[in-house]
Specification:
single chain, 131 residues, alpha/beta
């Protein structure tokens, strides 16, 4: 499965820790991330990640295009609710596209853990029929 990983500035360390904890699951999938988030995850996990531009430089738009082409199966977007300016309109667009194209999306640690465990149990295989 193709998994997109995005994290607002205040959530980057949390994303790194999430990826360390679930490395065994993530390594079995194709990973995509906005530039800075992808680099930080690679540094601590040694996972192979396709990196887009930084989110503020167009990476979220690149991810949105991949969602529109049905090339993403799961989005984990750890957002900072205390600073909504961090994710701006592009962040809202990514989540809107997830809604439009039936892409499971997590925006906090609790929902990310639920989705990654569902993925591990094979409960997201229904995504294959969309391809």
């Amino acid at each position: 499965m193709n998994i997109a990983l995005i994290a607002d500035a205040a959530k980057k360390t949390l994303m790194q820790n999430f990826c360390i904890a679930y490395r065994g699951i993530l390594v079995k999938n194709d990973l995509y991330a906005t530039g800075t988030t992808g680099r930080l995850i690679e540094e601590v996990t040694n996972l192979s990640i396709h990196k887009y531009l930084a989110g503020t430089m167009g990476g979220e738009q690149q991810l949105g295009a991949q969602i529109e082409n049905n090339d993403i199966d799961l989005v984990i977007y750890l957002r900072d609710p205390q600073n909504p300016a961090d994710h701006g309109q592009e962040g809202h667009d990514v989540l809107r596209l997830c809604d439009m194209y039936n892409i499971p999306a997590a925006t906090n640690l609790a929902s990310a853990e639920l989705l990654i465990n569902a993925l591990d149990r094979g409960e997201l295989e229904w995504r294959e029929m969309y391809k």
